[in-house]
């Protein structure tokens, strides 16, 4: 779904009052029923990550971490079955999964007498049953399950969704009998930085020649698209020629302004692909019957 910048900004303004919980996402969907849940979640996640980058440093200040930890210990002792950590995260506007990391890190420092390794910390966040404190384990799990922007569960879902859309793209290309190389094949050939698909025979989409296709299971906003252009898309253009980017969850329509320079944006697999074979047939002169 392509959104005008005005439509996008209206959604962004609404997200500013929300926290990254699945309940809040339902509120966002109720407010914008004409947009898909996936599009709204992607927009909200991008905006919340920007907000987090601006404020995360104050949550990691030693005195702040200590105040969070002591408050957790006090409230968890008084209300052992309550979602203390989740409520604290929402109160101070910190991602529940990031709050869980902060508190678990502080807990392990007390337990081990030194800074825990990232390996131990990450393994316990992924599998809270490894935490040697049942109440903390329950709180960590509540934070992970309820966070829609950060944490091991979200990372797993994003990875799976990304792979799902890459498979969808390959299936669509096979349906059209288009010959291509995927990222795995290209890496095996020695390419270090490649798009998801290289077409062995270029095609035309809406009058533009396409040599490669990149799949993005996300919404294309100004910030992410600018980063992708600088870090990926122009590099692909320099190496392989003009290409197509599919933002499966939509993008700001005004961003599709690089077509003449060789980068086309779509929000779905194109239906008007013209192959070399079709183009050649169209160019053949008509013959009068003898």
Automatic annotation (TrEMBL):
Q: Which UniProt keywords apply?
A: Cytoplasm, Nucleus
According to the lineage, what is the superkingdom? Eukaryota
Q: Name one GO biological process term.
A: erythrocyte differentiation
Which Pfam family, giving just one, matches this sequence? TPD
Q: What is its main location?
A: cytoplasm
Question: What is the organism field in this record?
Answer: Takifugu bimaculatus
Instruction: Please state where this protein is localized.
Output: Cytoplasm; Nucleus
Q: Which InterPro entries match?
A: CDIN1 (IPR029404)
Q: What is this protein called?
A: CDAN1-interacting nuclease 1
């Amino acid at each position: 779904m392509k959104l005008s910048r005005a439509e996008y900004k209206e959604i962004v303004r609404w997200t500013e009052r929300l926290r990254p919980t699945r309940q809040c996402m339902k509120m966002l969907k109720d407010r914008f029923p004409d947009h898909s849940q996936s599009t709204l979640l992607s927009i909200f996640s991008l905006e919340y990550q920007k907000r987090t980058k601006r404020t995360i440093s104050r949550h990691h200040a030693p005195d702040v971490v200590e105040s969070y930890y002591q408050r957790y210990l006090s409230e968890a002792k008084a209300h052992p079955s309550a979602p203390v950590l989740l409520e604290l995260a929402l109160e101070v506007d910190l991602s529940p999964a990031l709050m869980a990391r902060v508190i678990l890190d502080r807990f392990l420092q007390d337990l081990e007498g030194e800074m825990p390794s990232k390996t131990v910390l990450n393994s316990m966040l992924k599998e809270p049953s490894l935490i040697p404190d049942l109440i903390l384990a329950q709180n960590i799990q509540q934070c992970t399950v309820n966070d829609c922007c950060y944490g091991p569960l979200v990372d797993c879902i994003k990875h799976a969704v990304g792979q799902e859309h890459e498979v969808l793209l390959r299936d669509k290309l096979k349906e059209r009998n288009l010959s291509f190389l995927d990222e795995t094949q290209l890496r095996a050939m020695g390419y270090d930085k490649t798009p998801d698909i290289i077409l062995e025979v270029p095609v035309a989409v809406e009058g533009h020649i396409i040599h490669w296709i990149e799949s993005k299971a996300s919404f294309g906003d100004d910030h992410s698209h600018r980063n992708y252009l600088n870090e990926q898309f122009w590099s692909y253009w320099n190496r392989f020629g003009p290409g197509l980017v599919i933002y499966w969850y939509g993008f700001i329509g005004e961003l599709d302004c690089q077509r003449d320079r060789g980068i086309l944006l779509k929000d779905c697999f194109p239906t008007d692909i013209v192959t070399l074979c079709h183009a050649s047939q169209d160019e053949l002169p008509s013959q009068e019957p003898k």
